[in-house]
Amino acid sequence: MTITDDGPKTFWGRAGRYAPGLVTLAHYQRDWLTRDIAAGLSVAAIALPVGIAYASLAGVPPVVGMYSAIFPLFAYALFGSSRQLMTGPDAATCIMVAASLGPLSGGDPDRYLALLTVLTLMTGALYVLAGCARLGFIANFLSLPILTGYLNGIALIIVAGQVPKLLGYESAGGEFFPMVIELFQNMGDIALPTTVLGLTLMALLLLLRQYLPNVPGALVVVVVGIIAVVGLGLTDRDVAVLGTVPSGFPDFHMAIFDTETYKHLFRDAAGLMLISFTSGVLTAKSFARRNRYDIDANQELIAFGTCNLASGLTQGFPVTGADSRTAINNAMGGKSQLVGVVAAATMLLILFFLTAPLAYVPIAGLAAVIIISALGLFDVAALRDLSNISGRELTLSLATTLGVLILGVLPGVLLAVALSLIWLLYVGSRPYDEVLGRMAGVRGFHNIQDYPEAATVDGLLLYRFDADLVFFNADYFKQRVLEAIDASPVAVEWVVVDASPVNVLDVTAVKKIEELREELAARGIFLAHAKTKRNLARFFKGDWMKKRQQIDAGRNFVTLKAAVQAFQSRHAAMSETTETPPRD
Question: Looking at domain 433-579, what is its CATH homologous superfamily?
Answer without folding.
Answer: STAS domain (3.30.750.24)
